[in-house]
Amino acid sequence: MKEAFYITTPIYYVNDVPHIGHAYTTIACDALARWHRMLGKRVFFLTGTDEHGEKVQKTAVAKGLSPRELADQVVANFQGLTPALTISNTGFIRTTEPRHYASVQDLFRKSLANGDIYLGDYEGWYCVPDEAYWTALQLADGHCPTCGRPVEKRKEPSYFFRLSKYQKPLLDYYRKHPAFIRPESRRNEVVAFVEGGLNDLSVSRTSLSWGIPVPGAPGHVIYVWYDALTNYITGLGYPTPTAEFGTFWPADIHMVGKDILRFHAVYWPAFLLSAGIAPPLGVFAHGWWTVEGQKMSKSLGNVVDPYEMVRKYGADAFRYFLLREVTFGLDGDFSEKELIKRANSELADKLGNLLNRSLGMLGKYFAGVVPAPGPSEPPDAVLSNCGRETVPAVAAAMDEVAFHKALAAIIELVTKGNEYVQAMQPWSLAKDPGKRARLGTVLYNALEASRVAALLMAPFTPTAAQKLWEALAPGGGPVENARIDRDGAWGGLAAGATLPKACIVFPKIETGA
Ligand code: MSP
Prior knowledge:
Layout: E1 4-13, H1 20-38, E2 42-50, H2 54-62, H3 67-79, H4 81-84, E3 91-94, H5 98-113, E4 117-127, E5 132-134, E6 152-161, H6 167-176, E7 181-182, H7 184-195, E8 201-202, E9 204-205, E10 221-222, H8 224-229, H9 231-234, H10 243-248, E11 253-257, H11 261-274, E12 283-286, E13 289-291, H12 306-313, H13 315-325, E14 332-334, H14 336-366, H15 378-399, H16 403-424, H17 426-429, H18 436-457, H19 462-472, H20 484-487
Parallel strand pairs: 1-2, 1-11, 2-3, 7-12, 11-12, 13-14
Antiparallel strand pairs: 4-5, 4-6, 6-8, 9-10
Helix pairs in contact: 2-3, 12-13, 13-14, 14-16, 14-18, 15-16, 15-18, 16-18, 18-19
This protein binds 5'-O-[(L-methionyl)-sulphamoyl]adenosine.
């Protein structure tokens, strides 16, 4: 097993405020980063902002700011996601940092030197008021697809990346690395696209000024995707041969939304191959959220603000809903009603309830001191076997990046735990002094199921999991320092430890109904 793990979010445009889409990718990456740390790996987790380009320039002009001033203001909203959503990123990159200029220009120079970047003419349909080029396919009835005004054919000198040359190397790479593009259905789409032939790609503009200058070519700035994608190596110190770069490159997973998969799975590996740098090991494309059945848009006024969700429901419940609700990779529908339902029925009524009833009885019958378990009876084995199977089931789900499966397996364990308590009726056992040892065993098992669940929930609901862990593994330190293999073994609950009488980590969300 590789001892290092490198995961990235896309870098977010600073022409807008964060919404559920940004929160989603970042939370998914965070769950994976936390999981891999708990496997004992060193993890580098990079996120950041994409600050160049026409959109930012225009938004800035509209606000009477310079693009840099706008970026400096908006970046705080994205950096604020880290504490608000309990994100454990280890790096944050802004494409306007000098280190990124050095990195992009170095990569560019390498491909310029070997002839993979050459000067040509870029021709397209230009919307003068919007200052934007469109391809014939993008036009709406021959007009600008965003403002509807007429367009004119224009030509400007541009540097091109020889993408056409990389058709075969890319197809070879996909063949040799079947897990490079996930999910599988997306992989097939990308392969079909590349098989259809690749055009060379315009990677600079003279009509744009807000960007990284092309080295040695005054008037040209590097066009958005070449600039943006390179963030993933800048974040590790490229072009300096740092220890970080040596340890963490190639990236294990670039997590992206389905709309930007092609840039990551086609352009990015080609840029890297050209520069003699290993392509990433994986790109995972997730689906999109609609909101209450509708496309999310500013004009509909239904944009979900992650900060507001955290204020209303807490980061744990929001994170849980996003990763539990849909098959990761497919589209999903966001609804606060459904979020409340899931949080109440699964986190409060199942996970919280198992822990609290067990702690309550432990307090009542054993003064809070964990008894040593006695001989196992058949119903105990049903629960302990489930506990033993849950850990590898979650591990397999996380390997597949199937958060929904991992969470379903954890909820299954606590459901079994509650059924076990119901069937064993510890409150009846407590009435018979001759059954005291049996009572101890039953409570031990119920608490042990909670402990294993708490450990496994740590990547998903980190704040609640920490509280659960403090209750069940007193003195055990932060749950993020726990290890899945060591601490996930059934029977890890320490006999003799004193546990609190209650631990409310998932209060019911009041619906007002
Ligand atoms: N700056 C580029 C990425 C460059 S990466 C080298 C960009 N930025 S973005 O801010 O527009 O988008 C960021 C992410 O949000 C994308 O992965 C996109 O898929 C995701 N989402 C935008 N709307 C979304 C939903 N409604 N649902 C889920 N994710 C969505 O693209």
